[in-house]
Amino acid sequence: FHMIANHDWSMVDGPDGEQLVVVHEIERTALRHTDMDSVAAAVAQSVTELTDLKVHALILIRPVTLPKTSSGKVQRRLCRTQYLRDELEVVYRWPAPKPTPPPGGGT
User: Contact, 48 vs 41, CB < 8 A?
Assistant: First the structure.
């Protein structure tokens, strides 16, 4: 069972300093038949175990919506900006509520 197709991560400013946000593009076949709570908890736990970083938010987005260049590389800065502006096509968000952009648009 392969659920995650493409991903990105970014550090965003939060009330306690920088916080890790992981954005995953989910495959179309997994949209209806996946326990998103279990997946999110497992991903967050794995990231913490492997990196000693706590995941502030895990965002699962619709297929083929992760911003990429024409050569297929993830556009990290654009993804971060879309997260901060709440412009990602979110299927599931864990556990943080939608972000509050900092003054000046969050770029």
Answer: no
Take residue 58 and report the two structure tokens written for it.
């895990």
Taking the C-alpha atoms of residue 59 and residue 82, their distance in angstroms, rounded to an integer, is 12
How many of the other CB atoms lie within 10 Å of CB of 81? 18
Q: What is the pLDDT of residue 23?
A: 87
Q: Of 38, 28, 23, which is closest to residue 2 (Cα–Cα)?
A: 28
**Burial (Cβ within 10 Å: 0-12, 13-18, ≥19) of residue 106:** middle
Q: Are strands 55-61 and 90-95 parallel, antiparallel or unpaired?
A: antiparallel
How many whole angstroms separate alpha carbon 2 and alpha carbon 18? Answer: 30
pLDDT value for 102: 63
Cβ atoms of residues 45 and 7 within 8 Å: no
Higher-pLDDT residue of 17 and 57 is 57
